[in-house]
Each structure stands twice: as structure tokens, then as C-alpha cells.
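protien #1 (seq + structre)
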Amino acid sequence: MMHLGIESLSNPLLLAKRKVQRSTMASSYDRRGGNHDWSNYIRREGRAAVMMESEGPGCITRIWTADPQKGTVRIFIDRSPNPAIECPFAELFDLLPLSQGIGGESPENYARSKAEALPMGHTSYCPIPFQHHCKVTIEPEDDYLYYHVNATLFPPGTRIESFDVGKSLDTEPVREAKAVLDNWDSGKPIVDMSHAKNRAFELAPGEEMTLLDHAGAGILKGLHLALRTDMPAHELAHIRENLWLVAHFDDDEPRDASVRAPIGPMFLDYGQEPKPHSLFLGRNGAGEYYCYFPMPHHRKAHVRLVNRSVLPVKLMSAVLHQPEKEIDEDLFRFRARWHTETPYGPDHRDYEGLACRLLNLDGYDNVEFLYAFGAGHFVGCGFNADMSDGPTDRAAGEGDEMFFVDDDPRLTMYGTGAEDYVNDAWGIRGYVGPLSGDAIGGEWGTNVQIYGYRLHVADPVPFIRKGRFTIEHGTGNNCSGHYKSVAYWYMDPSLTRTRIEEIRWEEIRTGKRKMNDPE
């Protein structure tokens, strides 16, 4: 059975499975590489404009827009002359389940977004599968429309039950996904940690503590960490970036851990308010950091905390690990990697002038969240853009996300801005969602900081040879600043040619080791 994406909400282990599909995104990005990223369409058909068109088999996995207030949207499935969905764009997100946001630029929505901590972008993760073909249009053509339409494309010959408005809005995967989101809304986690192993300990500066050391196959299903909450804010900030989580699985090299990140950013906490508490990562109501990304391993797992701070750290941990005799070879290895970068830009201050007229399509100077070689799939990131020491923050939030997959232009994804990437719109006021969120600190023009996260659970981005996931530092890379991020992805370990693997294959080649000899 081919999964459409949302099944990973109720069965997280599916996130780790090898992906045979490819991902695409149609958007209103500026085709010249500038900041005119609205109302750019594939083509016109009479009074209508085509937003997205794709051959099947495939599935629309996400629809986002900043302002769905104008026009009629039509979604045509399998070249039928009659649309499977036809309604005012403003009503589409009421029709589709798994939708969020208030949508539309207006004083009332600005006030409501800030007061209720809601995203102004309208987003739906309702799957819309198609066997042969899919086309999305808007009529009449909207002259001020920002949009994204993400889709998964399956291998030729895959059988998909095409979307039917009478049946597809209430399938079992949709109901299960809705139940997961309802549980999240009520504070119930997706992983039951009642059988986790708990311990309390203290780490002196320079010390480390092993949280899990297992020989054999298994799956790390959940991890909780709780710091003292009575520390001064500056001490907590210091520990947040200097207490590191490090995890090695199977044949990871000592200097190439699968997980290597400070615990704050690892759990989406860069010091912002409100604190993120997504489905898979964040900080819960009890003040505990948590991670529910499944981490399968075939031969061994070693997870530890390393105190790189100058302070002693008292904390509690809970580890939920499930030993197995063996696990599916198609379960990839979880990876999480911390990255910090201080890019420079021309720092133009004229928003209506040069600041928004810089052109960038190749993404060469973008901030990199991830640059991975081999086969895998990207499942999300968290980031912080600190502009407090830069000459200007003009157009800082207009930096577009750009995903470059396998050097294939057909798979390149161009977005329309940082707040749009995290399912918000018209600036950032701060919200926390199950799959995305954002926050802002300081003041524009003086010391602004931008925070965001998005988890690609229903819409992972697979790559076969390499994946490069980036964002502009301001539109056209205008702004200097300090960027911090953690990327999350799953990787095929057989295609990561580490030195240990090369040594093993050399021993096999020279006869010092047999093919199936244990390590």
C-alpha cells in the first residue's frame, strides 16, 4: 500500500522508511529571482490562471496561501472536464480537513493573529491523490496572490485511488491524522513515555553522561530532558547552547555522529517566546524538552549528553527504547545537525528600491540548513536569524527558501519568504503549531531576531544523490546576520561512504575479512 504522507502523523515510524517518491512545489515565486513573488502562474487559460499542474500518479500534500479572499479555485483530477473541487478560494480551507490559519491581509486579521497567536497563512495538509493528472486553477486571475502547492510524485505504475470529494475527506488516514492533531491541541503527546527509563544526574563542566548504550537492533522512540527552571536567564541561555546531545548509531564514525546539536536548538528552543511544542519536538507543559522522531538502528546505539558549558548542570532524562531482534532494512538512519553561519550582504536599506530588487535563482550564497550527499529525505528544521549586529534588517523576512534536489531543475523548490515557509504570512507575530511555528524578538530596525520551524511530516523531501536545503538571508541575500539552525533528515547508511565502511570494504577486497563477518 502506498502511503500519501499524513499516515506518518499517527505512525511516526513511517517517517524513517525509504521514500520511493519525489517531491515538487509549484509556487508564485518571482521567476527572475527577485521579490515580486505573487501572482506568478504556470500559464493563463482564458480568465483562469493555472497554479499547479502535474502528471500522476501523485498526491497534493500541502496547499498554502497568504490571502485566499479572491476568485474561485478549481482542482481537476485525471483530466476530467469537471473539477473535483470548485469553490471560492476563501472557502477551500473550510472544506478541506487538516487545515489551519486565518488568511487574508486586514487590520482585523492582524489583530486576531497577534491576540490569539494564530498564523495568518492558510494551510491545508489534506491529501488530494491523483492517478493520471492534476491541475489547480484560480478564476478570475488574482493579481495579488501568494501560493504554494506541494505534491508527491510516485513511480510510474503505482496505483493510487484518485480524490473524490464524497469519500476522500473522511478516509481512515484523515480521521487518524485529525485525532493526532486534536490530541496535540489538548496536550497529549504522540508517544506514551510511561515505560521510559528515568534518571536524575549532574554533569560537571567537561563531563558527559550516557543516556543509552545498546548492542543490537532497536528503535529509540522518545527522549525527554528536563533542566532546572530556577536558574538565572543568562545561565539557562548558556547551557541551552553548550549542553550537547550526541548520538552514534551502527557504524557512525566518532567525529560524524548522527545527532550532534546543542539541546536548546535540537528541541527548537533558541530562546524565543512562545516556546515551541510541535508534534515531534519542543518543550512540554512540564518544562521538559522532548523528541519523538523515531531513531532506528540495526547493530548498536550510543546516546550521550556532553557538557561543554562552564557551569554544572542538573537534569533529569527519560529514554524510551525498544530493542528488536532485527529491523527493516528500509528504515533509514535519523540525522540532526547543528549549523551556524554569519553571512554578509550589501545591506541596502531602501525597501522599495534596491533591497527588493536583488536577483537570486541559483541560491549560491544562501544560508544552508543542510547539504547532504547520498540518499535520504529531509523532514524539517528549526532556525534563528539574529539581525541585531547587522547594518540593517530591511527585507530580512523576505528571504526565500530554496531546495535543490539531485541537481534536477524539475525538483527544485522556490518559496516566497521565511514566514510563508513556516505557514504564516504578512510578517511574523508568533504562533506555535503542530508542524510549524514562528516567533519574533527585539524590535525591527534595531535588534530584531526571527525564529521559525517547520516539520515536513506529511511532505518530506526525498533525494537520491544529494539534497541542499537553503534560505536567503533577506531577499536576494540582502542582509548580514547570524543564522543558527538544526536540520532533521533520514539517511540511507549504505550510501554514506564513511572511512569505517571504506576500511571494511578494503579488508573484504584483500581477503582479510569475509563479506558477512561481524564487526
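ok now protien #2
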Amino acid sequence: MHKDRSSNPDAGVGHDTVADTGAGTGTGTGAGAPGSHDIAGTTGSNSTEARFSRRRILKIGAYGAMAATGGGILAGCGHAARKPIPSSSKSLHLPRQSQHIFESGHLPYPHLEPGTDTIPEIEHIVVLMEENRSFDHLLGMLGRGNGFKLDSKGLPTATNPYHNGKLIRAFPDPNPCRTEAQPVQSWYDSHFQYDHGTNQGFARSASGPAAMGYYTGATVPFTYGLASTFPIGDSYFCSVMGPTFPNRSYLIAGTSSGLVKDALPPQPAHGTIVDTLDTHGISWRDYYSDLPTLDLFYLSGPQSIRKNIVPIAQFYADAQAGTLPSFSLVDPQFTKSGTTEGNSEGEGEDIQYGDAFIARVVNAVMTGPGWSKTMLVITYDEHGGYFDHVPPPGAVPPDNIPPDVTADEQYDGFARYGFRVPAIVVSPYAKPNYVSHMVYDHTSILKLVETKWNLPALTARDANAANMLDFLDLHHAAFATPPRLPAPPDPALLNSCLTSGPGGSPSPGKIPPPSAIIKS
């Protein structure tokens, strides 16, 4: 049954556009900000968590990591080296009291049977989630959406105070590699970077000055070409002000069940989106390169789930054959394996490999026979510790589970989004030259799936999320013929930073460049 989406009563509760406050261009630290903190004051947050990174879990095995960290809660968080950051006094911008907040189990169309297909124009929803890039860091110089403000020379005006009393201006990253150690996106450091809504804590956090680097189309030509052609969202936030695993948990379960670190999350109370899809007989697959996202919840089964977790080669075969399932997750290569470089754009990687991976996935979708009925969502799990000038607004908490941290690090709990990340929607029905200003997070992808098949919400967060249909015009396939896009770079020709080093902070004379340091 086809339902007119224009009458959808819950395309997103309280999800207006986010105003550009200009907070990222100021020089103050905000009322009550931890202005006395410098990088030395945050080293504790980069110790144990860094050692038990996703790559560490890959090396020692997920269960071994859980045992080493006390059953999934990372020990030794370095609290002695920190000063608490109080909860923000700013308004959380939650839905007005007159607006009803939906709970888990809510159906997008309560009068329809669960499992009803309300968007027959789209048969395949594909999700590609890369890693560790903020909106400004990757798309701030795109010229579309709420990116950097530029001076008369065309350079970003955004600055952040550094621990030595000087300001660091946003600067073009000198090469395509990211270090293993910096920037940093832990729960603590992300809140330090947020700095009570000023976003003036990036350079003084454990990220250091590397946080202020950015890329342009010269380094990632395919990504820039894609974002210049298809619609982007400039108010798409990651779900948690923290690292990868909690944010990917929100993509799958609408909650991290209290998790704020890179460890395996508890099993969610209402299951995951693939459980819901299985219940209603809707096909899905997780196509993985080296680590399936679904290993967060289904590392040891059941077989009914594991059978749909398949190698990435199957994605290209299915796209070519026109046999992609109704819902697809596409996972990048998270770590180097032999001669295969990582292409997730995460720690220790060359971003050009991520640009090439995105190009291969997009081209596989656009040239396959299923293109005419496909919607591909490309986004990033979290900001990676990189600067963004838009303070994350308040969010509907998914449940009543508080962050699994000490009392002095509760902050706003899960009632606030994380920082902005890039979001691009690729589809024949995508709106050309369009920027969606609605507020989204990773649970908006869940809400999209739930809206299409009228499925019950997993948590209050996805129940109230915007459903991403603003990116589409379902009455007109503007990209029925796939557009011509730039070729990605050949990383093998320009990957010397993988052997010579990325020149990252604190390497003197490279990051930050002298031109980026100005007097306060």
C-alpha cells in the first residue's frame, strides 16, 4: 500500500534547522568554560581508551578486549588528570512541551499494518558509514551548506584558542594521512571540545592543533564532486558526543545502552533494526570488508543473523546483478591487512583510500540495474576529534539509561547530539543542488527504514527522528540517468605519508603550519 508521505505526522518531532551561531569563530571560552585546561590536562582521556581502540579489539579479539576492560567497561580512564566539565547551562532545545514525544514501539503510520511498504519508489536502502570526519573538516570548503565562513582571501575565519594563549586558525591539512593518536574523540574530549556550546575546546583538548585541519576537493575529488551534485545535509549530527562504537550502536539499535567508549555494547532492550526486519520478512545484508558493524551485537550468532553478514565482494556482485536486499549496510576496511590499506578514513589511514572506496560503492550502485529504485546514504560515524563550528543541539534521549561513566562526567547524558558529520544522499530521486537543513542523526536512518515499512521504533530517539525524505523528490527522478562524477585519486601515487608519516601534531613545523598561528 502506498501512503502519501506529505501527511506523515512524525517526520521528526522538534527537528527544525540549526542556526549558525558563529560560535566557532570567536575567541572566548564561554561562561564557566574550563579555560585553565591545556593539552596536558587531557592526556588521561587518551590513554586507556586509545590502547583499547577498535584496531586493538580486532587484534586481540572482541571477547579478549571485554575481559581486559572489565566486561566491556574500559578501566583506567585517567580521571585524576582531569577537571570536571559541568553540564551546559544552555537550553537543550528539546521539543516544546506542547509537542508529543513518541516512545519506543511507535509506528510512523499507526493506522497501517506494520510491514506496509509506504515508499514503493525506493526498493533498496543502502547505508555506507565511513569514520571520523566532521562536516567542517571534510565539507567546510564545499561552498554549499553551513560550512566555513571565509575572509576576503577565501580562507576560513574559524579559530580555536591553544594552550599557549595563542589562536589556531583552520588550515588546509598538509597531507592526506591521519595519525593514530590525534585528533581524539573520546566522551570526555568531545565534551571538552564542545566547551559549553562555544566549540572552543578543540585545540586545547587531546586533539591538539590537528583538530583545525581541513580538506578540499584537491585531496578528495570524488567526495567533493558527489557532494556538489547530490543533496547534502548540513545539520546531520552523530548520535553521541563520543567515539565509534556508541555511534554505530545508535545506527543499529537507536541507543548505546549507556556505552560511551569503544567496547562492545550491552544487548539493547528492544533489539536492533535487523531483528525488526527479520520479524517482518524484509531482506537485509551487512557487507563487510574486515569488521562487520553488526559484530557489535551478533559476534557469536545466531546463525539466522550471521548468514546475512557477507564479504564486501558480494555487494559488488549483488549490485551488478540487481539483487541487493531491501536494506544494506556497507562496511569499509577498518584497518590495514597485508597490502590492503584501510579505507574507512579512520586513525592511521590515508583519506584518499576512503575517497576511492566511496567512488567504487557509488559507481556500483549507479551502474547496476537496481539504480532506478535505490537510495544510498553516505555518512560518518563521528567527528573524529576534528573541529566543527556548529554546537550540537539537544536531543531526545533514547531511553532512561545514563552514560556508563562516573558522576562528574555525566554532562547532558544522552540528551544532546554529537558533532556534525557529512551526509550525502545518492538516488535517482535525490534533489539536485539541494541542502537539507533539517536536524538528523544516525537514528534518522532507522526512522527512514521504519517509515518505508511502517516499523515500530526501537527507542524514543528514532521514534522522534527526522526520516530523511527531505533529501528526495519522489515525484521526479532528476538523476534517472546517473551523472558524471570526478574520478577519485589513485592513492598509490600519493600515499607517501603512509610510510614517511602524516606530519601530525605534535610534529614541529608541520601541524599547525606557522601561518595558522595568530596572536590572541
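The CA atoms of residues 397 and 414 lie 5 Å apart.
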